[in-house]
Amino acid sequence: MTEKTITKIDIRGYHLDGYQHVNNARYLEFLEEGRWQHYENISVEAYEKLGFAFVIVNININYRLPAVFGDVIRIETNIEKIGNTSLIFNQVIFNDKNEKIVCDAKITFVILNQKTGKPFIIDETFRQLLLKEVSM
Amino acid sequence: MTEKTITKIDIRGYHLDGYQHVNNARYLEFLEEGRWQHYENISVEAYEKLGFAFVIVNININYRLPAVFGDVIRIETNIEKIGNTSLIFNQVIFNDKNEKIVCDAKITFVILNQKTGKPFIIDETFRQLLLKEVSM
Amino acid sequence: MTEKTITKIDIRGYHLDGYQHVNNARYLEFLEEGRWQHYENISVEAYEKLGFAFVIVNININYRLPAVFGDVIRIETNIEKIGNTSLIFNQVIFNDKNEKIVCDAKITFVILNQKTGKPFIIDETFRQLLLKEVSM
Amino acid sequence: MTEKTITKIDIRGYHLDGYQHVNNARYLEFLEEGRWQHYENISVEAYEKLGFAFVIVNININYRLPAVFGDVIRIETNIEKIGNTSLIFNQVIFNDKNEKIVCDAKITFVILNQKTGKPFIIDETFRQLLLKEVSM
């Protein structure tokens, strides 16, 4: 089981849309925030030193229940799978009060070498870094 | 083949993120804009008179190539399938100059009765309206 | 001197625009977040029980230095002035590491009675509530 | 009188916030869109060839009336003043049906030399370019 990162966000008026619930696009920012927090320790260094870029290739997201003004959501972020050149995040958003699932998503990335623009082969050292089993 | 709606958007500086390409969340706003245009003639009336609400239950989106400053994207929006209580949009975003696919997505909605909050059964009349074979 | 609320935000890739600094519009969301936190204890109740709505009539914002990826910003929010039917927030955003001012803003609101849509006269009791000298 | 650029935008559900009117931050994106359209012919070239960057130093915006779902807004953008190193845009947003002013804003920019990061002196040739009296 991979390490899980918890991110809490208070739902404000500016997160809502005309239906008075959180807009579908805003959830992707919430999920992105969760992923930045998950890789907080390595993201800047990895980008600058290792020279790789995380590029999203697919998002598959289920919207299960609306989040509304005054709700607190809890984003749980972990790595589901690491392949040769890709990795998949599993992210679930809960209503922090009643524990119901608001949405869940799988986010697939490829990792590109910034210089060549080509996929970066994920070796064992890099794999352990991505799994947060080691730090830089 | 269902009617297709074309939406063009010029990519500006405020659409980009730190990687200097359009951010993953912004595409969902672009797709939403495409859907509003697709149902421009019925959206306000349908909402107010018929009392139904379109609620997204799933988005499955592939990001194939980045869109950058100065690009013009073309969103093609059509209905892929209408079920008993749900409908699926098919949306493809092209780079309008080189015709390459930037991203493609399937967006699944259920239609809820605003008063009861329960799914709305899509009968033949409503189905024709959603397929734009008739107007209100 | 009125009570000051501190809000810290980590700058992420999705906060930036094509110039790779925080976009001008995003700062207004940061400031709005600061104001929600300032009135966290009264905002829901005030809206629902007292029936008033805060409506922005003017924003005057100076952008002094860019905020970039990896920065932590600190928003300081307090009330500058309360008039008969309006109030002015003073908000300053600092770079939390070097203490330089990133931007500063005055945000002027009128308070409307939700039912009548007319300005709400700010009496002494309400004034103390807005100044956080008393709680509901 | 300087040339005026007209931009029309249909207000959609995703432009609104929890109050069901257009959020204060979204207007800044609308204004930015208006400015890109105003300088559509020179923006890419100016940035790449001339090597200058437009940097906002102040926004002073009055929110006069709400824009809601189904409204069409019309943004009028022109240059109010050009100084030695700065320029001021005047932008007014109208409700396109009833001609009422939704908001109006003055946006002050300095123009920086991208290489030195220092202000760019606006000479007569550049001034005419900014006033759209000549093209590149």
Structure description:
The structure is a homotetramer of 136-residue chains. Helix content of chain A is 22%, strand content 38%. Chain A has a single domain (5-130), classed as Roll (Thiol Ester Dehydrase, Chain A). By secondary structure, chain A is of the alpha+beta class. Chain A has helices spanning 24-38, 43-50, 124-130, and strands at 5-10, 52-63, 72-82, 86-95, 101-113. The model of chain A has no long low-confidence stretch (mean pLDDT 90). At the A-C interface, helix 1 of A face helix 1 of C. Strand 2 (52-63) of chain C pairs antiparallel with strand 2 (52-63) of chain D, so a sheet runs across the interface.
Secondary-structure element series of chain A: EHHEEEEH
Number of helices of chain A: 3
Largest interface between protein chains, with number of residues from each side: A-B, 18 and 18 residues
- SS content category of chain A: alpha+beta
Please indicate the count of domains of chain A. 1
User: Going across the major beta sheet of chain A, what is the strand order?
Assistant: 1-3-4-5-2
How would you classify the quaternary structure?
homotetramer
Instruction: Report the end-to-end length of chain A measured between terminal Cα atoms.
Output: 21 Å
CATH topology group of chain A: Thiol Ester Dehydrase, Chain A
Per DSSP E runs of 2 or more residues, the count of β-strands of chain A stands at 5
Overall outline of chain A: elongated
Question: In percent, how helical is the residue content of chain A?
Answer: 10-25%
What percentage of amino acids of chain A are in beta strands?
35-45%
- Average residue-wise pLDDT of chain A: 90
C-alpha Rg of chain A (nearest Å): 16 Å
Pick out the low-confidence regions of chain A.
none
